[in-house]
Design brief:
By secondary structure, the chain is of the alpha+beta class. The protein is 32% helix and 29% strand.
Length: 171
């Protein structure tokens, strides 16, 4: 199965945000290349909010290009067999933490936003950090920092706040 087909199945089974979910499905129906950065009309991206429920905190990255505190995530790549694999790869690469495990139940949220390259139709997962996880800044980050749940609204935009709230509701 292709990554495109996996994304369609994931989105068809996602039961929230009906209008936005349909926008994603329409995009994929109209664009055979809709998973890839090369698609100028926008593309599906995958992200993972790294969370440590034991300590009540999330790991955010200060994105090098956007200069905003965000969850880990980005463009899908040909090595990604599934959206989950893309989210887990991005989470691992950008956090430096091995052994992340996605929360079961599929995506936590969808978020569509404009970036310098195009519209990103982000499929957002949550990833549990293993006990004793130690983060490491990647080339894509200016900084990487743990924030208590109630600190996120002070540093990040509403999309990240909503993702943290939805993740906490699923825990």
């Amino acid at each position: 199965m292709s990554l495109h087909d996996d994304a369609v199945l994931v989105l068809k089974s996602y039961e929230d945000q009906e209008e936005l979910r349909q926008t994603y499905l329409d995009h994929l129906a109209a664009h055979a290349d809709g998973m890839w950065k090369a698609c100028q009309d926008g593309h599906i991206t995958a992200s993972a909010l790294v969370i440590d429920p034991e300590h009540g905190r999330v790991l955010l990255t200060l994105h090098k290009k956007l200069r905003m505190w965000l969850q880990m995530g980005g463009h899908c790549e040909p090595v990604d067999g599934t959206l989950e694999a893309a989210a887990l790869r991005e989470g691992t690469e950008e956090s430096g933490i091995a052994g992340l495990a996605l929360l079961p139940g599929g995506p936590v949220r969808l978020d569509r936003h404009h970036t310098p390259c195009a519209w990103h139709l982000d499929v957002q997962y949550a990833a549990l950090a293993p006990a004793g996880a130690v983060e490491a800044i990647s080339d894509e980050s200016l900084d990487l920092r743990w924030f208590a749940y109630d600190e996120v609204a002070d540093v990040a935009d509403e999309s990240v706040v909503r993702l943290v709230e939805a993740t906490r509701a699923r825990l």
